[in-house]
């Protein structure tokens, strides 16, 4: 894909995952957890791709993802296109992890329970622009559907929520107003991609 399309494509993919890994505001009472509101959602019409996707309506969440994606796109932009005669490439990963208790010396240790890895490769475009946009949109729609299939698969499991905010704090990020996503981190590595074979449980590569 083109560099101008990378940011919108990645935001569509990452926000689709987060839509299913985010709770509304959580409330704790008498040893039980409940929702105090409904999670807001909004449609996003991409400008460079013929695609519309749904994301959580949260400015802090959007800004966090946009910042990571912009940093990754900048790294791709600066990647030399003549490196081993290969086009610029890289991978970006969305990792959900629980803060498990560690030793008194090391403190808490994050333990990843789900990771989504997206491989990106920039290519020179030679085909008709209209046809290529349709093809890219079709490919992305297929990826979004695959994400939903993975999320709804019987083997897909989520960490259990505790009965108090202190217990849930190991797996839930309470720093954002109105939404409570599972704790996550976004990392990226320019200049390389990850193979799709032999992936462990909980690891999704695209």
Automatic annotation (TrEMBL):
Record protein name field: Autophagy-related protein 101
Does the keyword Repeat belong to this entry? no
Fetch the InterPro entries from UniProt. Answer: ATG101
Q: Which domain of life is it from?
A: Eukaryota
Please report which protein family the annotation says this sequence is part of. Answer: Belongs to the ATG101 family.
> Which is one Pfam family of this protein?
ATG101
Say yes or no: keyword Cytoplasm present.
no
Q: Name one GO biological process term.
A: autophagosome assembly
Which species is the source of this protein? Taenia asiatica
The UniProt keyword set, sorted, is: Autophagy
GO MF annotations in UniProt: protein kinase binding
Q: Name one GO cellular component term.
A: phagophore assembly site
């Amino acid at each position: 894909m083109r560099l101008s399309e990378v940011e919108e494509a990645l935001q569509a993919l990452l926000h689709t995952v987060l839509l299913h890994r985010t709770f509304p505001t959580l409330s704790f009472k008498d040893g039980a957890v409940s929702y105090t509101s409904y999670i807001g959602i909004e449609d996003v019409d991409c400008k460079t791709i013929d695609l519309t996707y749904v994301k959580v309506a949260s400015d802090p969440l959007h800004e966090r993802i946009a910042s990571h994606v912009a940093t990754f796109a900048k790294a791709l932009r600066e990647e030399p296109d003549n490196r081993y005669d290969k086009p610029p490439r890289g991978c970006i990963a969305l990792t959900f992890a629980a803060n498990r208790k560690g030793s008194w010396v090391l403190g808490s240790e994050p333990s990843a329970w789900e990771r989504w890895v997206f491989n990106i490769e920039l290519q020179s475009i030679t085909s008709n622009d209209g046809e290529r946009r349709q093809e890219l949109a079709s490919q992305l729609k297929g990826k979004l559907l695959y994400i939903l299939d993975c999320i709804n698969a019987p083997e897909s499991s989520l960490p259990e929520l505790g009965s108090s905010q202190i217990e849930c704090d190991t797996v839930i990020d309470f720093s954002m107003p109105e939404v409570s996503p599972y704790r996550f981190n976004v990392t990226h590595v320019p200049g390389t991609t990850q193979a799709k074979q032999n992936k462990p449980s909980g690891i999704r590569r695209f």
